[in-house]
Specification:
mainly alpha, ATP12-like fold, 3-stranded antiparallel sheet, two-stranded parallel ribbon, 57% helix
Length: 230
């Protein structure tokens, strides 16, 4: 789509902050008002609009896309989104450990054990750990504790949590990032202990490196969204 506007601004409306293109408020794909909870988020999305060249490229506006997802979807179905995030907790990456080689076992235990200790102490979620390919069913108490923690978040943070959990394969990592226990970049690093070990042993695959970089960028934007709505 060709750029159809010159000026981008932010205005405070009844339901939040709006982004204006030549004085007209931006709407979501669902034709709802792009009502944003903080001025900081509105300004960041305004920068995305202002940074467009002659052609509007949606993929270069990740914060706008996340906000659209929240307003058109998450805000209307928050409970379903919580359930979707919780599915990653049912098979949380941090609970599935290698039994060999020793170096990989050590890295997983040191990196992932700290997060499982945190979620147990912070939320009372005692997560079971399995070795190899054996499946482990998490207790209803643990899953209930995770659900209770997730239900405390606003729709914008829930959307970001879903992105982080999807990328890392871990509800625990997503929660730890949202609550400021660890930075997003470190969560991404922890989620890729296996891949990093394999790359060190056999060499980095160029395509895999490119995919990882794209995922890291997507996770960074989700973390940025969390910060901007606070």
């Amino acid at each position: 789509m060709k750029r159809f506007y010159k000026d981008v601004s932010v205005a405070h409306g009844v339901n939040g902050f709006a982004v204006l293109l030549d004085g007209k408020p931006v709407k979501t794909p669902g034709r709802r008002a792009l009502a944003l909870p903080t001025e900081r988020l509105a300004e960041a999305i305004a920068v995305e609009w202002q940074s467009q060249g002659g052609e509007i490229i949606a993929t270069t506006m990740p914060l706008l896309r996340l906000a659209n997802t929240v307003i058109d979807g998450v805000a209307l179905n928050a409970r379903d989104v919580v359930t979707a995030i919780l599915r990653f907790g049912e098979n949380d990456l941090l609970c599935y450990r290698a039994h060999q080689p020793p170096e990989l076992v050590k890295r997983q235990a040191e990196g992932w054990g700290l997060l499982l200790d945190w979620v147990r102490q912070r939320h009372g979620a005692v997560m079971k750990v399995a070795e190899g390919f054996s499946h482990v069913d998490q207790s209803l108490d643990a899953l209930g504790a995770l659900r209770q923690a997730l239900e405390e978040f606003d729709p914008f943070t829930l959307a970001a949590l879903h992105v982080i959990a999807s990328i890392t394969g871990s509800t625990v990592l997503a929660l730890a990032v949202a609550e400021g226990f660890i930075p997003g970049a470190y969560a991404f690093q922890l989620s890729r202990i296996d891949e990093t070990y394999q790359a060190e042993k056999w060499g980095e695959d160029a395509e895999a490196f490119k995919r990882a970089a794209a995922l890291a960028h997507e996770l960074d934007k989700a973390v940025e969204l969390i910060a901007l709505v606070r």
